[in-house]
Amino acid sequence: MRVTIKDIAKKVGVTPATVSMVINNSPKISQRTRELVLAAIKDMNYHPNYIGRSLVKGKTNNIAVVASFFASLFALESVRGIESNLRNTQYNLILYSTRGIEENENDMLRRIFYERRADGLIIISLKMQKELLEEFKKEGIPIVFVEEIVEGAPTVKFKNIKGAYMATEQFIKTNRKKIGLIIGESGQNAEERMKGYREALEDYGYPYDEGLVARVANYTFEDGEKSLKQLVKKNPKMDAVFCAAGDVTAIGVMDEAKDEGIKIPDDLAVIGYDDIYISNLTNPGLTTIRQPIAQMGSQAFDVLIGMINGTIPYESKIVSFEPEIIIRESV
Amino acid sequence: MRVTIKDIAKKVGVTPATVSMVINNSPKISQRTRELVLAAIKDMNYHPNYIGRSLVKGKTNNIAVVASFFASLFALESVRGIESNLRNTQYNLILYSTRGIEENENDMLRRIFYERRADGLIIISLKMQKELLEEFKKEGIPIVFVEEIVEGAPTVKFKNIKGAYMATEQFIKTNRKKIGLIIGESGQNAEERMKGYREALEDYGYPYDEGLVARVANYTFEDGEKSLKQLVKKNPKMDAVFCAAGDVTAIGVMDEAKDEGIKIPDDLAVIGYDDIYISNLTNPGLTTIRQPIAQMGSQAFDVLIGMINGTIPYESKIVSFEPEIIIRESV
DNA sequence: TTGTATGCGTTATCAA
DNA sequence: TTGATAACGCATACAA
Fold first, then answer.
1. Contact by Cβ (8 Å): A199, A191
2. Based on the domain organization, do B286 and B177 belong to the same domain?
3. Helix crossing, B221-234 with B247-259: angle to 10°?
4. By the number of CB atoms within 10 A of the CB, which of A206, B214, B255, B281 ranks highest?
């Protein structure tokens, strides 16, 4: 049996209540008793059982982070950002992964809620039923969404419109004339990046051409190869591609270009999205839009803690982060 | 207030004990009572509070995963592997990151233990004090180590010696004469890979030459550039480099080679370690040693569950995984 | 088959 | 300043 508050009490000759008060720094404990108790605690190597504590306090000191997969760059970096702000708090992180199965989602959230598994949630790139959010709000369990906007709770996200605008503008300013776009086939992000692309074209008097857009489903290397093939076939004069689907796909584009004898950046300029580690290592280096994901994760955590402490209201509010264009040789 | 077992009991007109037995599928509950209780549970949207349950059962249903950082390929892939086996179990993952601070390590483990935060631990690439492990064993809290061997508990790891042997042998079989090595300056892994390299040399009658070895500290791209510079300076006739420090460093080597006009693989053959995503995209493609990290993570989880269930003994035992050589154009 | 009583480890409310 | 007692939500041994 591990040592409990009772063992300490017995050893010192006080009651568990007194020990508890010492542990919780109650001011109304005599110096002498405090010292005795503290000594016994150290002596017997006592640590409070957080479950017992949670039960009576109605708090778990756990923050749940929910995502489809944690083995993605985005989720991982977010967790890293959250982690970095975790130090010096009493909170722990519990990871819930839906494994990409949409039906899991609301079930999982429901369980976290009803089984009281966390004091607050950070939900990454997932939606939530409105009624379920209402239940969380009613009980005062705060939620911060990342990259998805859900009415009634704060969201931390990136300015995708701006990022796409910057990329497109970069092409225009370097005199590219026919700018292709490779982009995800659905989702809030894809819509926003599409919007940024179109806005830039419009602002500079470029026509929008459906034929210059390739949609991808999986954001893979192969998606990039396939898309480029398809785009050059339709548009022999295309001299730039903005791969809003991400750097991995952009690298597929570059690879395919090499196979087809298309020179980068002379014949074709390429810009990706994400600035993954390897984008700096490709040849030529990939120009891309970088997002400070970890920083955004930290912010999500801070907002959540603010909500838990009552200093930040439980309401719709969007905290957005600026993208940055990283110029390398592909452009 | 959220609904508890008492509310259900009151509504159905039984005692909480009866409700509890229904929830736990006790066979000695009449069909009729069971149905009534189940109906009420559904009706009132009752979910058992896991804290109450944990307190009485002495189980948390949490698995702690401890690593220095989760933002590394290795930790990430491990988590992915663990995640994939988590489904259909009642367990959740809690991530503890020491953030690379060694002093955090034992403190953190101690807290997990004394505060009873997890039913079992998976410790990735970290050591542990022997006495602390003894405490865990005494209380029956299982630990599985990944990539580190600690006396008294099972370890899941890769055959680094074999991986390094395969790489070196590949050079020898393709008639390379002077084989350089770039390797981490400390750690169990580095030692093992060094051993594999030396064993292969010896088996084929090659001399071991200290001057052909470069030690790196950070496993970075720059480490690769610097190391190659240093190696070719000392060994103008070197015609192969095994970069046991990993693919990122190997890519640095290839980049530096290009700058110096060294042709790969004609003048210099290169083999990396890890098979990161981009290794397939370099030019030429990087030959490398691949480790099934996610699979190893799954296995670590299975071993841990086996220990929790008592089907696997709590003792030193090494489960090793085979590396695989992925041959591309750099060789 | 169900109810009663008790305990898990801690904190909080009161009384002393 | 400290002690006695109850409570958090649930599970279990035992009695009925």
1. no
2. yes
3. 50
4. B214
pLDDT digit string, tens, across residues B47-86: 899 899 999 988 988 999 999 877 677 888 898 899 889 8
Residues B164, B288 within the same domain: yes
In chain B, how many domains are there?
3
Buried b (16+ CB within 10 A) or exposed e, B201-233: beeeebeeeeebbbebeebebebbbbbbbebbe
pLDDT at A295: 95
Q: Which residues of A72-81 are buried (b: 16+ CB within 10 A; e: fewer)?
A: bbbbbbbbbb
Burial class (CB in 10 A: 0-12, 13-18, 19+), B253: buried
Nearest CA in chain A to B86: A97
- Minimum-distance residue to D13 (CA–C1'): B17
Task: Check residue A231 and give its pLDDT.
Answer: 98
Residue A328 forms part of a structural domain: no
The string of DSSP codes covering B166-221 is HHHHHHHHTT--SEEEEEESSSHHHHHHHHHHHHHHHHTTPPP-GGGEEEESS--H
Nucleotides of D under 7 A from a protein CB: 1-13
Any CB–CB contact under 8 A between B98 and chain A?
no
* Distance separating alpha carbons of residues A165 and A318, to the nearest angstrom: 20
Give pLDDT, residue A71. 67
Whole-angstrom distance, CA of residue B248 vs CA of residue B221? 5
pLDDT band for position A1 (cuts 50, 70, 90): low
What percent of chain A has pLDDT above 90? 65
Taking a C-beta distance cutoff of 8 angstroms, is the pair B323, B162 a contact?
yes
Q: Which nucleotide is nearest to A5 (CA to C1')?
A: C9
Structural domain that includes position B25:
5-46
Residues B70 and B39 in one domain: no
Is this structure's pTM higher than 0.85? no
Judged against a pLDDT cut of 90, whether residue B100 lies above it is answered with no
Nearest nucleotide to the CA of A30, by C1', is D1
Q: Which two tokens stand for residue A46?
A: 């006592």
| Residue B95 with chain A: CB contacts under 8 Å | 79, 83, 93, 95
